[in-house]
Amino acid sequence: MMRRASSPLRAQCQCEGMNSQHLPSFSLDGKIVVVTGASRGIGRGLVDALAAAGATVALTARSSDEASTIAAQVVAAGGRASGHVMDVADVGSINAAFDDIAQQHGRVDVLVANAGLGANHPAVDVTEADWDDMMDVNAKGLFFTAQAAGKIMLEHGSGRIVAMSSQASLVGIPDHAVYCASKGAVNQLVRVLALEWGPLGITVNAVAPTFIYTPGTAERLDDPEFRRGVVDRIPMGDVGTIADVAGAVIYLASDAAAMVNGIVLPVDGGWTAQ
To answer: Does the residue 137 lie in any domain?
Structure first.
């Protein structure tokens, strides 16, 4: 496995007398960041990473108990967070959650639209329910989540929206017809919203991860044969981590990405470069 070298930039900029006027800020201090699908996997890790970057995280989950517990864990670790109930498959639930967030925090600076479904079926076995369930969350749910956040951001004249796409939006993956289609829809939504809202101070981008090792993917990725088949497609020689995704999300959420709008940023170790 290849080791990724850390950047010496931070150390260089701490040198006495160095001019740092061109060093952008990656800090999220003072930002109100909404994270959907925050109860597990990538979303749960993003909550911790964003809080560590200085954000106040308004995290959402379908379960009130889960949302409250995770928020309490962040606060106990020294961060700032609040928990809110949201089912992204229910537009009424989305709007109610954002009303609650806006009432508690006064604004929304960043949306990380992470909630999503993943499933694999041969195309001939896909049912109408399979299609509707995934599209309701990954495409429809993401759009109306972005719409609700966008309305609040438009009132304040600024904001960042970071959607969770997938490398499956950029390449075909057998037995993932519905998933690939739903994530392709995410990319197009991002591009259109970037064009509509960019002139109004809101950037809209997406992150497209490869296979990421999480508690939810561990069973498959711990299988040597399956993992080998995945890693053989990744030039960097390993699957991704939640920290890899968090780095891209924090960048796009920060002032450092002020001129980045309408892009889909792969975090895939080079899979889609082939």
So the answer is: yes
